[in-house]
Amino acid sequence: MIYDIVILGGGPAGLSAAVQAKKDGVENILILERDRELGGILNQCIHNGFGLHTFNEELTGPEYAARYIKQVVDLGIPYLLDTMVLDMTDHGETKIIHVINEESGYMTIETRSAILTMGCRERTSGAIGIPGYRPSGVFTAGTAQRFINMEGYMPGKEVVILGSGDIGLIMARRMTLEGAHVNAVCELMPYSNGLVRNIVQCLNDYDIPLKLSHTITFIHGKDRIEGVTVAQVDDKLKVIPGTDEFIPCDTLLLSVGLIPENEITVNAGVEMDNRTNGSIVGELRQTTMPGVFACGNVVHVHDLVDFVSEEAVLAGKGAAKYVKGTLDTNVTFTTANGDGIGYVVPQQVAMKNVEENVTFYMRVRQVFENKVVNAYIGDQLIATKKEKKLLPAEMVNFKIAKEVLEKYPAGEIRFVVEEAQK
Amino acid sequence: MKKELTCITCPMGCQLTVVDKNDDGNFEVTGNTCKRGPKYAINELTNPTRVIPTTVVVRNGMLPRLPVKTAEPIPKGQIFEAMKAINQVVVDAPVKIGDVVIENLLGLGINVVSTKNMDRC
Ligand SMILES: Cc1cc2nc3c(=O)[nH]c(=O)nc-3n(C[C@H](O)[C@H](O)[C@H](O)COP(=O)(O)OP(=O)(O)OC[C@H]3O[C@@H](n4cnc5c(N)ncnc54)[C@H](O)[C@@H]3O)c2cc1C
Ligand code: SF4
């Protein structure tokens, strides 16, 4: 049997894309998930604050996931758990997905279209070169989250956190609630990499110090971590001599960033964007390989699941159109990141597929106050997005109406941070 | 009185300004994107509360821990007391989202509820 759409990963992106494709009339859909349950990373994010504007209710991660799992079940979309995708190969009209399943062993699945939703993984201590041994007691924040929230295992009692990403902030509070003492959160940059709300409710609420412009210069201990040396850095991120301080701890959590999980994508030959570490995608999240779509954290790291679900709807629509043969492949616009902008997704727009507007997701490179993001085609200003404060930690979503874009036959849409004009 | 604070109700994290011109509890809130902002700000200045998301021990489930939350926000000052009470609880699978795990936590009139469906296995 040949499937219409196979979805690689059963997290929020995969679930939402599946639901949309089914609603758009595609029958033969299959979701593949390596874990023992659907829901992805949200199963370990037990804190509240999800989906407030989508569901008008403040949900925890598992509750948010459950909403989508219920839709998948109600729509009768089949899924396989404990099924690890190893590889995807392109055969023109169809793709072959190579998987290992706990019961059936190795097998191949043939499909017309595939949606990549493998999410992301955390950077580890190997990825950041701190001198010292690699004793036990050093975890990524997400690993600690899984241990505590799902397995019921507390990693330690005296904690230091490196990196102020959201997972690190959330874990600072979580470990404090469970009786640990969090000595400090150290952030190399002069600003936090997490959402302001998490600084407020996870650090300030519990008087946990956030040491900006600080890094760890040494990890002490050989078998078990005994402490860390923390030092201040200057504006070139170089350690300032004489500022080092020893902080004893039995646990070090790393919250130093996420990377899209794209081995399968790269091996399949899908074209990548080195700014996002994800694939190049269009307005309906089509990749450069016909029939292959991608959405969620595998495309670019989202800070909020709400945006992931939104993006996945596009991929679901796109794959449904592809299966029905109604997807337009003529690229009208490409996008570019100008001054102050780190990346823009989507990288391409085929206007014939656009319904009402296109939302462009982007991240700024540094903190900006009282500036705007402007969109240009050539030297023509086509749209402006005002934000009181632009933070690298908070993705900008910039919606541009179809009517505005339609005025231009083709070209490059360039996004830049500029002074607000009165 | 004038105070700046961040609304933590949702990830938008709006920067709110609260002004109490005559210091008589007549708060004027600006900077919010939605109507939850003013509600949060006034609450935060008069009686700050938080929802507590945590876990309890579950037996015969797919996992050894079940995520739970307080169904309503509880006073900030009682968070650790609440954690102590919640950590005493042991439940048995199957459990459904919304099932009450503790009734009337610390006499606050607020329940602790499950946030995950967990089958027996
Ligand atoms: C540790 C962590 C904590 C986070 N906390 C929050 C938070 O508190 N709030 C928030 O809004 N966002 C949070 N995020 C962001 C979060 O990733 C997104 O909100 C959302 O979960 C992303 O959805 P996704 O479907 O793209 O990825 P995921 O949720 O990661 O789902 C990807 C799925 O694909 C599966 N998969 C991957 N590779 C394969 C393979 N080869 N074969 C089969 N299956 C595979 C995975 O098992 C997983 O189930 C967090 C992210 C991480 C990593
Ligand atoms: S005011 Fe509304 S939109 Fe802004 S953070 Fe609060 S709840 Fe969110």
Poorly predicted tracts of residues of chain B: none
Run of helices and strands of chain B: EEEHEEEEHEEE
Mean pLDDT of chain A: 94
As a percent range, the share of strand residues of chain B is 25-35%
Q: Assembly type of the shown chains?
A: heterodimer
InterPro entries (chain A): FAD/NAD-bd_sf, FAD/NAD-binding_dom, Metab_Enz_Cyan_OpOx_G3PDH
Pfam families (chain A): Pyr_redox_2
Keywords (chain A): Oxidoreductase
Protein name (chain A): FAD-dependent oxidoreductase
Search tags:
heterodimer; A: 422 residues; alpha/beta; FAD/NAD(P)-binding domain; Immunoglobulin-like; 3 domains; 7-stranded mixed beta sheet; 5-stranded parallel beta sheet; 9 helices; 29 strands; 22% helix; globular; B: 121 residues; alpha+beta; CPE0013-like fold; 2 domains; 5-stranded mixed beta sheet; 3-stranded antiparallel beta sheet; 2 helices; 10 strands; elongated; binds flavin-adenine dinucleotide; binds iron/sulfur cluster; DUF1667 domain-containing protein (chain B); CPE0013-like_sf (chain B)
Give an overview in words:
The complex is a heterodimer of chains A (422) and B (121). Chain A is α/β, with parallel strands linked by helices. Chain A folds into three domains: 1-121 and 258-327, FAD/NAD(P)-binding domain; 124-256, 3-Layer(bba) Sandwich (FAD/NAD(P)-binding domain); 328-422, Immunoglobulin-like (Sandwich). In chain A, 22% of the residues lie in helices and 37% in strands. In chain A, helix 1 (12-23) packs parallel to helix 8. Chain A is globular and about 65 Å long. The termini of chain A are far apart. The mean pLDDT of chain A is 94. Chain B is α+β, with helices and mostly antiparallel strands and 121 residues long. Chain B folds into two domains: 2-46, no CATH class; 53-114, CPE0013-like (CPE0013-like fold), CATH 3.10.530.10. Chain B is built from two helices and ten strands. Chain B has helices at 36-46, 79-86; strands at 2-6, 15-19, 28-30, 49-50, 53-59, 65-70, 74-75, 90-92, 100-102, 112-114. In chain B, the strands form three sheets. In chain B, strands 8-5-6-10-9 form a five-stranded mixed beta sheet, with no helix packed on it. The model of chain B has no long low-confidence stretch (mean pLDDT 93). Classes of the chains: A alpha/beta (422), B alpha+beta (121). The interface between A and B is medium-sized, with 36 and 30 residues. Chain A: Residues 3-301 form the FAD/NAD(P)-binding domain. Chain A: It comes from Acetobacterium fimetarium. Chain A: InterPro entries: FAD/NAD-bd_sf, FAD/NAD-binding_dom, Metab_Enz_Cyan_OpOx_G3PDH.
